[in-house]
Amino acid sequence: MADPSNPVRTCVGCRRRAPVTELLRVVVRGGGLTPDPRRRLPGRGASLHPTAECLQAAVRRRAFPRALRSSATLETGALEELVSARSS
């Protein structure tokens, strides 16, 4: 039985399911991907493990535009900075 106080989401990079507490929410703002660690920004979000491997897999598979229903090319700079800072 799932714990309703800790929902489960799927990482767009590795496609594994994990509790939201282990994943980083990402939204589109200003034409780029914006990390939403507090999970409070408005709009459709995608979940990602905050690791370089999952980020690279998501970019390679073009998972962000599909998950966020965006037809535009999305800038990943802010997201890459956050992930590299967390892994260092």
From TrEMBL:
Name the Pfam families on file: YlxR (PF04296)
Family annotation (InterPro entries)? YlxR, YlxR-like_sf, YlxR_dom
Domain YlxR, residue spans: 9-73
* Protein's UniProt name: YlxR family protein
- Which species does this protein come from? Modestobacter muralis
